[in-house]
Amino acid sequence: MQIHKCLQSNLAVAAMVLSMAVPVAATAQTDTANSETAIITTSRDDGRFLSSRGLAQGLMKAMPPRLAFTDVMTEDSFPAWQQQMEQAMTTLMALPTTPAVAPPRLVKSVERDGYRVEKWESYPFSWAVVPFLVLIPDGVDASAPAPAAMLCIPGFGQTKELLAGEMGGDYDLEQGGNPEAGHAAMARTYAKEGWVAVAVDNPSCGELMDNGKFDYLNTSRVLLEVGWSYLGLSAYQDKLVLDWMKQQSMLDPQRIIVSGFSLGTEPMMALGLMDKDIYAFVYNDFLCTTRERILVMTKPDENGNRPFPNSIEHLIPTFLTLFDFPDIVAALAPRPVICTEGGLDRDFRKISRAYELAGAPEAFEYHHYPRYADPSARQDLETLPEGLNRQEFFNLVNCDSPSHYFKDHLVVPWIHKLLEE
Amino acid sequence: MQIHKCLQSNLAVAAMVLSMAVPVAATAQTDTANSETAIITTSRDDGRFLSSRGLAQGLMKAMPPRLAFTDVMTEDSFPAWQQQMEQAMTTLMALPTTPAVAPPRLVKSVERDGYRVEKWESYPFSWAVVPFLVLIPDGVDASAPAPAAMLCIPGFGQTKELLAGEMGGDYDLEQGGNPEAGHAAMARTYAKEGWVAVAVDNPSCGELMDNGKFDYLNTSRVLLEVGWSYLGLSAYQDKLVLDWMKQQSMLDPQRIIVSGFSLGTEPMMALGLMDKDIYAFVYNDFLCTTRERILVMTKPDENGNRPFPNSIEHLIPTFLTLFDFPDIVAALAPRPVICTEGGLDRDFRKISRAYELAGAPEAFEYHHYPRYADPSARQDLETLPEGLNRQEFFNLVNCDSPSHYFKDHLVVPWIHKLLEE
Questions:
Q1: Confidence band (pLDDT; 50, 70, 90) for B101?
Q2: Residues 6+ apart with CB under 8 A from A98
Q3: Which residues numbered 221-260 in B keep a CB inside 8 Å of some CB on A?
Q4: Tens of pLDDT along B277-289?
Q5: Residue B115 pairs with which residues in a beta bridge?
Q6: Residue A17 has what pLDDT?
Q7: DSSP 8-state symbol, B308
Q8: Which residues, numbered 310 to 329 in chain B, qualify as contacts with chain A under a Cβ-Cβ cut-off of 8 Å?
Q9: Alpha helices, DSSP H, located in A45-185
Q10: Predicted pLDDT at A133
């Protein structure tokens, strides 16, 4: 099987080319250099690792993303690379290709101030139902379609109700709105701008909980057993809703924007590579190179345990041997993308270059966290040192996690500007 | 890619054939029937699951192992099925096919009562070293080779030193033996019988720890990222040692037995399918159908959390959609296997039938735990009910976990008998 050959081929390369040199970033300011255990090391004279964690670290280093966007890319080679990215993501996500079990069905509608909220159900499998909410501004219908429609994908632990500015918990929309939703009410914010806004749940969360528990790890584990993933299921659920959106006469199918917050940026990017019909993307998180994060976040806690790479909810085997998040955003060019919460300028330069190759440099816009908005306030690193803990990593990549929220003040004007073009 | 097509094809079948009927085992005695939440359920009239855990449960049910040994197997179809099993395991384990970095090297030798312990190093990658211990009975050499040689793979948390009856901790063999090792000293037991015994570490354990931590989850996670697995690495490390054993003139390469305790039965089975040179197998654990265990162990704990399927150390994506442990043992026929700690008679009947098809019914021997040795003391179930916790599962499959230890009193006579044939 192909995946087997890929690994074997990668391992063969690994055995030949691995350099164990620890990347040195001259400007990185951390105290990890003084810690003997912060970096995965060996005390052997031959430099070989006894520890299996060291073996695994070496293996991951030896398998850099095969499809990474690099400086050698040209205008001519860019489209073929995009196609490879699309194919790789299609393989990884493994969305079922069987026809939908049944079309989505409207189950409820409630009026709100200036829009209504409809509750719909989709049916990803014959034994499963996944509800979603649709916010339709007053006056929008087939004869007066909305100028844009937003597919809103929430962050970790958020519900579709929160995004819609509704109360969660009983999921019947009878409680008349959630005054506490604030910035998180991404879909309501969009609806108030006159756009159709659809809010979905991520698997295992909110109404998709089991036994009242947000058991995303258990669900992820079972999905991984059968060769799927939490992200694969998320992308499948969201794709069914996206396809439904394309058929609605109350909106312009050429102006569907996917808006992801935090965890929601992952299915957003997966759908982005796989679905050319999506018009634009709102990426509301810091832009992370996940493979690098795993490799450098090795500083043990007070008990001597190194940080566990992000939870298995984020595990898609071989994903990081193919590409990383900045590569995926680069491959969306020339379609408009806004990144609202910064990251490393290195990664933004990469994406900007992709947009230049695609002939649309203005279609990519990014903003740093306010704390890092001034260039002198942030670090501009090409490489990160190993031996970081989570906070040190965040500091080096300009991530101000306490200010992590939906940046409507950046996104809404950006979308208005897009629609005026 | 193939794995993608497999999942899509499986999902297609799933969408068509899934029956959500809960298996009923008339003889199963548990109190779970009274618990509303023990089973993953839905309160919807259409029977559809809202919970993602229910969706995932349905998906796993819809993807039974494609290569399961079934009643329709005949003498004629058996060899082709064995070949499919071998190919599937080879794909899953993805062992590097590059030549070994360097041959294993002897680094130390100490004398013990009736045998000597040699410490060797193997080099699975250019950046990694994996030591192993070799116990050589006095008088055994190229001119008087041992009648058998055992590759001993430890259980979870055990070290090669424990198996060799040595003290762990500093791994230098200078402490002169471990009087507390008892039954766990599998390799020492074999050496005292006059057989060459090799003891290995499982990844991340003992000398392969990182920063003094048995960090098998962290290592597993990184391996899964690059498309490998803890079991894949275990099998690779053990395979290098096995190949080294075959070249030693102090033993008969036609009489190499792999002896696995608990976790160690997993690489033993993987190697068994992939390496026809192995003469026989000691399976020292209860025989578990892991997929069934995941599907039925759904009873929430006092906090409402369902049991997490066994840790990601055991995760090999798609493994359980291909086969389960009893199928693998069945595919080892006609090579001798002893199972020492019981399980469901259903599974032993399956394996016994495979050995009959292979023309060697006497080559498979199994024993139940003493507590379940009397047929009237154990349950003989064809299916297990959902809604079990771990202890209820163990009770139903005749697993007496407090009596889980290396059953030398069963294994040693069995090997002597084999060697006399």
A1: confident
A2: B11, B12, B15, B16
A3: 221-228, 233
A4: 999 999 999 999 9
A5: B112, B137
A6: 36
A7: P
A8: 312, 315, 317-321
A9: 52-61, 78-93, 160-164
A10: 98
Rounded distance between C-alpha atoms, residue B295 and residue B297, angstroms: 6
Ranges of H-type helices in B247-385? 265-274, 290-296, 319-322, 325-331, 345-357
Percent of chain B exceeding pLDDT 90 equals 86
Q: What is the per-residue pLDDT across B207-257, written as a single tens digit (0 to 9) for each?
A: 999 999 999 999 999 999 999 999 999 999 999 999 999 999 999 999 999
Predicted pLDDT of residue A100: 73
B16 pLDDT higher than 70: no
**Cβ within 8 Å, pair B321-A227:** yes
Determine the angle formed by the axes of helices B230-246 and B265-274, rounding to 10 degrees: 60
**Cβ distance of A226 and B20 shorter than 8 Å:** no
Q: Nearest CA of chain A to the CA of B160: how many Å?
A: 14
CB-CB neighbors (< 8 A) of A238 in chain B? none
Q: What is the mean pLDDT of chain B?
A: 92
Residue the block writes with tokens 């409507």: A408
Q: Distance between the two ends of chain A, CA-based, in angstroms?
A: 47
Answer yes or no: do A225 and B309 touch at CB < 8 A: yes
Please measure the distance between the N-terminal and C-terminal CA atoms of chain B and give it in whole angstroms.
47
C-alpha–C-alpha distance, residues B251 and B255, integer Å:
8
Contact at 8 Å (CB) between A153 and A200? yes
Closest approach of A124 to chain B, Cα-based (Å): 9
The mean pLDDT value for B271-297 works out to 98
- CA-nearest residue of chain A to B11? A96
Residue A99 CA to residue B12 CA, distance in Å, equals: 9
Tell me if residue A375 falls in helix, strand or coil: helix
Structure tokens at B10: 């499986």
Most confident of A98-112, B79-93, B98-112: B79-93
Nearest CA in chain B to A42: B210
Q: Do the Cβ atoms of B227 and A300 come within 8 Å?
A: no
Whether residue A3 and residue B1 make contact (CB cut-off 8 A), yes or no, is yes
**pLDDT recorded at residue B1:** 32
Per CB-CB distance under 8 Å, the chain B contacts of A14 are 125
Task: Please give the sequence-ordered ranges of beta strands (E in DSSP) within A103-240, or none if there are none.
Answer: 105-112, 115-125, 128-137, 149-153, 196-199
Within an 8 Å CB–CB cutoff, is residue B294 touching chain A? yes
Angle (CA) B37 B40 B45, round 5°:
95
Given a contact cutoff of 8 angstroms between Cβ atoms, the answer to whether B259 and B411 are in contact is yes
Model confidence pLDDT, tens digit, residues B153-165:
999 999 999 999 9
Q: Is A243 exposed, middle or buried (0-12, 13-18, 19+ CB in 10 A)?
A: middle
Question: In angstroms, what is the C-alpha Rg of chain B?
Answer: 22
Residue with tokens 């004279």: A45
Between β-strands B115-125 and B128-137, what pairing exists: parallel, antiparallel or unpaired? antiparallel
Number of H helices, E strands in chain A: 14, 9
Q: Quick one: tokens of B70? A: 């079934």
Distance from CA of B74 to the nearest CA of A (A): 27
Beta-bridge partner residues of A198: A134, A151
Q: What is the mean pLDDT of each run of 10 residues along chain A (421 residues)?
A: 45 40 35 67 95 98 97 96 98 90 95 98 97 98 98 98 94 90 97 98 98 96 98 98 98 98 98 98 98 98 93 97 98 98 98 98 98 95 97 97 97 98 83
Amino acid at position A141, single letter: D
- Residue B372 near residue B342, CB atoms below 8 Å: yes
Percent of chain B at pLDDT exceeding 70: 92
